[in-house]
Structure prediction request, 570 residues.
Amino acid sequence: MKNTAKKLSPQTGDDSGALIGVAHNWNKRILVVDDEPGICESYADILAPKKNVLPLRSTRTLSRPPNEADPGYEFEVTICDSYDTAWEAFQKAQKDGRPFAMGFFDVMLGAEKDGYDLVKEMHNLNPDLYAVFVTAYNDRTIESINSHLGAKKVDRWDYLNKPFTQGEILQKARNFITLWNLEKEGELKTAQLAEAQARLMEGERMASVAAVARGVTHEFGNILMQIMGKADLCRKKEPQEMKAGLERILEASQRANEILEKFKNLSGTGEGHNQKDWVFPHHVLDEALDLLEHQLKTANVKVTIIKRDLVKVRANATSLLQVLVNLSINAVHAMGNSGQIDYAIVNDGKWVELRVRDYGPGIKRELLDKVLEPFFTTKGKKGTGLGLSISREIVEMEHRGQLKVVNHPVKGLEVIIRIPVDGEGQYG
Amino acid sequence: MGKPLFDLPILVVDDDAMVRGVVVEYLKDLGFSNILEAKNSQHGLKLIQNSKFPLGLVLSDWEMPGVSGLVLLKALRKNPGRKGTRFIMITSQRSMERFKITQAAQWAVNAYIIKPFTCDVLKEKIWQVMGWDEGGGTQATG
Ligand SMILES: Nc1ncnc2c1ncn2[C@@H]1O[C@H](COP(=O)(O)OP(=O)(O)O)[C@@H](O)[C@H]1O
Ligand SMILES: [Mg+2]
Prediction:
């Protein structure tokens, strides 16, 4: 997987999105090793026919000419007549970033090392290479080949007996070339998917950062106003008054610094991003409420903390902060111009429950499962549909907990999060 | 014009007491003495709607809980008794999104001013919206 990713991504030095949009290039490179010139000719005829006959040299590369009827199998064939020339061709292919997908290997190469040794060496550098051993007599049992190449390689080799037919060679070549490429395509798709998901997560994180940023900017404006105003006014004042003004300025600067620290936590630019620690959930809640202060005030939302158990949990504070911010922003959205959010932190010794309950319309029963799915939103272009799904991912995958969305029996929506105190949880 | 500065009735609306305090101190420093303070937008709205209080100028924060600065501006423009009253909107940079500016322009905001600002900037804006020459037609200066 790593190999493909590296090979296929353009070397732009830009990590973000290196894979998305990249298409898989079919690799049709075949290596043939046999020390008998006549057999080499047969391979050439079968895999790359109608080619001018080249004088037989130690190594030559042939392509099968384009064939309208069968465009998928224009192999690119390199034929070598010894262990050393094969090893050289192989290394060059690796170095050029154009590895062989498969090879046909004679076993007895008239050298100290045989075809099995050669493949074993090659697997160190190109572990995905498919090898077909072609031998006149079964000099080794399947078990002995297995133990020579290693049990892990069992799906990477096959064998044929000499004399072979054209059909046998073509079939093996087609099968293994197809297998190799389907594998690589799959790996690329998986890597692309993972990358797309990572980007979306980052997008949603930035969306909650942006929502909070508006409030923070407003607050910063106010604080700077105090600082600038006091400084401006103080200039003309007597020392005594000036001193009082300076005190104010100092206080305001400290407040600005505190806000900045919290904001850094949310955006993940501060320290401690991405790691678990012993965390007091009520600290995270306080932080979320501080960040949202302006939003909550502007939307006329009252906050009550129903229960506030003192307990430490193994958690990633940045992620939890993001969850609480996401849920709170959803609650504000749901309630429109005024309302109330109740928060609770309840410890039962093994689990800590965090509850966020609003007094909005709740969610229709048939949509309760839907809202947890990525991209489900009822907010049109303004929503990402990722807030809840990412919150669930953070709670369930990162913290081995549970996230449930339920309608409160009286009114509004309640999101209940359970996190194992010791970080082990249900799967531990 | 030509009216003594001291008498120009000014309403300052901001829910942040510290910011309001600084603006009021600026105004006093500039020589104004007829200053009304509203500690939130609802309070400000009442003062704007009640034409009994003469108002020459309103300085209002834009983002406030409940009633926003835009609502105050609309109320001012809809009140026939407040024809000549100028309105300066105070905002933090981030909230200066385009639609807010166009909204404000639609309702004939006279100027906006971005936090934080110095006394000199406030003076410049006030003089500009009142149509006063620098130092001319006035009795007191900052
Ligand atoms: N507190 C809530 N009350 C009512 N509906 C909610 C609440 N939270 C989320 N929802 C519903 O779930 C949907 C998905 O939420 P979410 O994943 O956060 O994405 P987004 O907020 O971007 O729409 C929302 O569009 C909304 O319909
Ligand atoms: Mg959301």
